[in-house]
Design a protein that fits this description.
alpha+beta; five-stranded mixed β-sheet; globular; Cell division cycle protein 123; CDC123
C-alpha cells in the first residue's frame, strides 16, 4: 500500500472485515492474494525502480500487542478522540518493554537512511501503511494550515485548494525520522489493526515486517493507479481523485506515453521473467525534483483495492482491458468532493 496517498474514504473498503467475506475460504483466498503482492514479493524484482527499502522484522507477540492496544483504547472512536488518548501511558511494564525493543530494532534500520538532517523515511508494514493515523494526531491540523497559508489568498477558500492542502498534509505527516513516531501511527491506525488481525488468524504463515523506505517528495497530483490484467497495463487513473489539477490536464498525453513505455519496456520484462502475478494494481509516481518515474507499490487485483476514478461494480470490463487502454483524470473541479471526506477531516475545512 507505498508512499502515502489519498485521504481515507469514509469507509475503508480495503479491509476484509468490510468487504463482506463470510467463509474461512474467502478470507484465506483474500489473504493469499494479498500476500502474493506484499512488498517482499515484488521489491527484489524491480528494486531499481522503486524507493530504496530495508526491512525490520515484526514478531507475532508484537502484532498481538498492536491489536490489543487498539482494541483496548481506540476501537470505534473517531480521529479527534483517538488523538486525545496517549497509549504509552496505558501500557503494562511488559508491554512497554516490548515496544522499546520494537522501536530500537526499527530505529537501527531507519538510521541507515538518515545520513543528513534533510533525510526522512516512510515506514509501512508488509501490506499497508498507517495512512489513516496522521488525522488522529495533533500535528495534522498544523500541517494543513501551513500548506493552506502558502496558497494564494484568492483560492484559499475553494474546496479544491483545501482538499489539495489536506492531501499534502497527509503526505508530509508520513515523513518520519524516529521509530517512536512510527509506533505512534501504527498504534492509532485502524488499517494496521485490521491487517494484524488478519495476519494473526494464520499464525503458521505469519511473516510481517516494518518496511522502511527512503522518503521521496511527490506532488499530490503526480501519483497514478495502474491496472494490470493478463500482464498488460490496461487502465490508469489519477490517484488522488478528489482534486483537479490544471497541469495534470495539460500533461495527460505525455504522462500516459511515459508511464506506458516505462511499464511495458522496463517493468514487464522483469516481472514476466520472475513469474510474477499477471493481474495486479500498481501505483506510479513522478518525482517532484527530477521527474523520475517510480513504482510506489503493487496491490492485489481485488475489489477491496480502491479503483480510483473507475468502478469495480460497473466497469470491471475496462479494468480487464476489454475496451482498450483507458486513462482517467479530473478535467474540472470535482463537485461535492468535500462530502466524500471522513467527518473528522471535514471539520478541518471549517477552520
Amino acid at each position: 500500500s507505498e508512499t502515502p496517498k489519498s485521504l481515507e474514504p469514509v469507509k475503508d473498503y480495503s479491509s476484509p472485515k468490510t468487504a463482506g467475506f463470510i467463509s474461512d475460504k474467502e478470507v484465506t483466498d483474500y489473504q493469499e492474494k494479498v500476500l502474493e503482492v506484499n512488498t517482499e514479493k515484488w521489491l527484489n524484482i524491480i528494486h531499481d525502480h522503486t524507493f530504496p527499502t530495508q526491512y525490520a522484522p515484526m514478531y507475532i507477540q508484537e502484532a498481538e500487542l498492536i491489536v490489543a492496544v487498539y482494541e483496548r483504547l481506540y476501537k470505534n472512536l473517531d480521529a479527534p478522540s483517538i488523538a486525545g488518548i496517549n497509549w504509552r501511558e496505558k501500557l503494562s511494564p511488559e508491554e512497554s518493554e516490548l515496544v522499546r525493543k520494537m522501536e530500537s530494532r526499527l530505529q537501527n534500520v531507519m538510521d541507515g537512511f538518515l545520513k543528513s538532517e534533510s533525510d526522512y523515511v516512510f515506514v509501512k508494514t508488509s501490506s499497508r501503511s498507517a495512512k489513516d493515523a496522521p488525522m488522529a494526531q495533533e500535528n495534522f491540523k498544523e500541517l494543513y494550515e501551513q500548506f493552506l497559508s502558502e496558497e494564494a489568498e484568492d483560492v484559499r477558500g475553494t474546496e479544491n485548494t483545501q482538499i489539495t492542502c489536506l492531501l499534502k498534509a497527509a503526505f508530509r505527516a508520513m515523513r518520519v525520522r524516529s521509530a517512536a513516531m512510527v509506533m505512534d501511527m501504527v498504534m492509532r491506525s485502524e488499517r494496521i489493526y485490521q491487517d494484524m488481525l488478519l495476519a494473526l488468524e494464520f499464525k503458521e504463515k505469519f511473516h510481517e515486517n516494518f518496511v522502511v523506505r527512503a522518503f521521496v517528495d511527490i506532488d499530490v497530483d503526480m501519483e497514478f493507479r495502474g491496472f494490470v490484467f493478463a500482464g498488460s497495463l490496461v487502465a490508469l487513473s489519477q490517484y488522488n481523485y478528489l482534486i483537479y489539477s490544471p497541469r495534470l490536464v495539460e500533461q495527460k498525453d505525455a504522462l500516459q506515453a511515459k508511464i506506458l513505455t516505462f511499464f511495458h519496456d522496463t517493468l514487464k520484462p522483469k516481472l514476466d521473467s520472475s513469474n510474477f502475478e499477471k493481474a495486479f494494481i500498481i501505483d506510479f509516481a513522478v518525482g517532484s525534483k527530477d521527474e523520475k518515474l517510480w513504482v510506489i507499490e503493487i496491490n492485489p487485483f481485488l475489489t477491496t483495492t480502491d479503483a480510483a476514478l473507475f468502478s469495480w461494480e460497473h466497469e470491471r470490463h475496462l479494468l480487464e482491458g476489454k475496451e482498450g487502454f483507458q486513462f482517467r483524470i479530473n478535467t474540472r473541479p470535482k463537485p461535492g468532493a468535500r462530502t466524500m471526506l471522513p467527518h473528522s477531516i471535514k471539520a478541518l475545512l471549517s477552520v
